[in-house]
Structures are given as C-alpha cells and as structure tokens.
Design a protein that fits this description.
The protein is of the alpha+beta class and 105 residues long. The chain contains 1 helix and 8 strands, in the order βββαβββββ. The strands form 2 sheets. It has a 6-stranded antiparallel beta sheet with strand order 3-8-7-6-5-4, with helices on one face. A two-stranded antiparallel ribbon has the order 1-2.
Amino acid sequence: MKVFQSGSISVLASGIDSLSLALQVEWQSSRLFELLAALKEEAKKTAQDHPARLEVGSDNADWLFCVKPHGKDGYEWILTGSELTLKGSGMDAHIHLRRRCRERK
C-alpha cells in the first residue's frame, strides 16, 4: 500500500498471507529457555511434536503451540502453531506469521 501526500491510497499488492520477521531480543531471565529445553526433551522422548501453551496475558487468548523434537537450519527450538512459527537459538528468533484461514461458506 502506498499513501500519497494528497491522502489517497494505492494498493501495490494483494493476496499476501504471511509475513516473516527476524529479530533479536534481550531476555531478562533464562526461565523461558529452560522451559523450551524441557519441552524439547519431552518431544524427543516420543519423537513427536510436544503440545504446549503460552500465557500471553489477561486480555489475550493463550497461544497453543507444539515444540518440535529437533532444531533446523541452526535454530535450537522450533515452535509451531496455527498462526505462527517461531524458530530460536540463544538471542536470535525468526517469526513467520500466517493469516488465519477464514471459514468458507
């Protein structure tokens, strides 16, 4: 989308259903990484994705996701859910956001 000085808007692309972000975050505590390591170990025991839940906050719904029993492309953890995939290792994270599928009538 492009916004012109006149205030008019022009659509540059449509049909986009995902967005990839790469970010670096400074963590105040290692608790999250300890939890991810424990969840990954549970997944390794069964060699299957391990379900988990992240409490997002009182105003938001919790995020349901699965932890893969393996890493990929240098990332230690892979978390997948219906709306996003998060790959992480140490301080680096790559997030792939997906648009929710709408019900077809």
